[in-house]
């Protein structure tokens, strides 16, 4: 190999490392800012926004837990709404996507189209009818009403992603199970569903993220203070005149911990699930 080619290869690697470093910095800067803001006193926040605080403190975290009465209530409500929604979506969309992926009739194609078209409908278009319908059945300001609404809003993207993944699962496995005497129910739960671990982990993380951070649906449906989730409990730190950024970022950091931990635990499945689902559409 000539010296010129070696030099070009080294420059190419250096350029790649530089690009990767820049991307890492872009993604880490928000986390850095969020952390240093949360350990600053209020008067330090605006002095030098990027500087490490001279006197770091965890009092902001303590104040959020002890002074914001909505924090623990919001945490409880977020857990009580997110877990059932994620489980319901995983079970329903897995079964629905399997049926849609394995059948090519006009009816199934139409159903798949209807499911996926739901992605194109803005929430603002259904906000009022959603509220009125749940109000009439007494599910406003309730965890059950929020779970039903959020599951319906999330099901379109879940069906789209899971159906694409199931198309990569070999049909021969299902045929072999049928020969061994398994009915369709047994074939799905014993053969297909265990193979869906990567995509189920992916939709578990994504659905948890969307439901946990949901503000639009929560602000429309959760009118009572005792039913509010974390996104609604955060707004107490912002008003027309001032913003308590140190307390707000302490709140944000504690609020995002469950989703961050879940992602780190399921990261390898998430990556493989996305890659497998992208192979065949």
Automatic annotation (TrEMBL):
Which species? Hungatella hathewayi WAL-18680
How is this protein named in the record?
ABC transmembrane type-1 domain-containing protein
GO-annotated biological processes:
transmembrane transport
**PROSITE patterns named among the record's database cross-references:** ABC_TM1
Which protein family is it in? Belongs to the binding-protein-dependent transport system permease family.
Positions of the ABC transmembrane type-1 domain: 75-266
Q: Do the record's keywords include Ribosomal protein?
A: no
Q: What membrane topology does the UniProt entry give?
A: Multi-pass membrane protein
* Repeat is among the record's keywords: no
Gene3D superfamilies from the UniProt entry: MetI-like
Q: Where are the transmembrane segments?
A: 20-39, 79-100, 112-132, 144-166, 247-266
Name the InterPro entries for this protein: BP-dep_ABC_trans_perm, MetI-like, MetI-like_sf
């Amino acid at each position: 190999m000539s010296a010129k080619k070696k030099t070009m290869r080294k420059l190419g690697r250096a350029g790649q490392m530089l690009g990767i470093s820049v991307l890492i910095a872009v993604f880490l800067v928000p986390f850095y800012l969020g952390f240093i803001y949360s350990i600053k006193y209020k008067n330090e926040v605006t002095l030098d926004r990027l500087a490490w605080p001279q006197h770091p403190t965890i009092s902001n975290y303590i104040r959020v837990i002890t002074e914001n009465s909505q924090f623990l209530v919001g945490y409880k409500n977020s857990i009580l709404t997110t877990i059932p929604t994620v489980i319901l979506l995983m079970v329903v969309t897995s079964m629905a996507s399997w049926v849609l992926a394995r059948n090519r009739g006009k009816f199934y194609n139409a159903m798949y189209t209807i499911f996926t078209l739901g992605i194109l409908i803005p929430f603002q278009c259904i906000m009022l009818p959603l509220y009125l319908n749940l109000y009439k059945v007494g599910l406003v300001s309730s965890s059950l009403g929020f779970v039903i609404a959020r599951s319906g809003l999330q099901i379109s993207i879940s069906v789209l992603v899971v159906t694409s993944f199931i198309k990569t699962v070999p049909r021969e496995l299902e045929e072999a199970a049928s020969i061994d005497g398994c009915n369709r129910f047994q074939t799905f739960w014993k053969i297909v569903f265990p193979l869906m671990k990567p995509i189920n982990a992916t939709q578990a993380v994504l659905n948890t993220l969307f439901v946990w951070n949901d503000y639009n649906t929560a602000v429309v449906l959760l009118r009572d203070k005792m039913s509010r989730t974390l996104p609604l409990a955060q707004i107490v730190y912002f008003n027309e005149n001032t913003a308590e950024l140190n307390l707000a970022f302490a709140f944000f950091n504690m609020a995002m911990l469950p989703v961050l931990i879940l992602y780190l635990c399921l990261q390898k499945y998430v990556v493989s699930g996305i890659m497998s689902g992208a192979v065949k559409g």
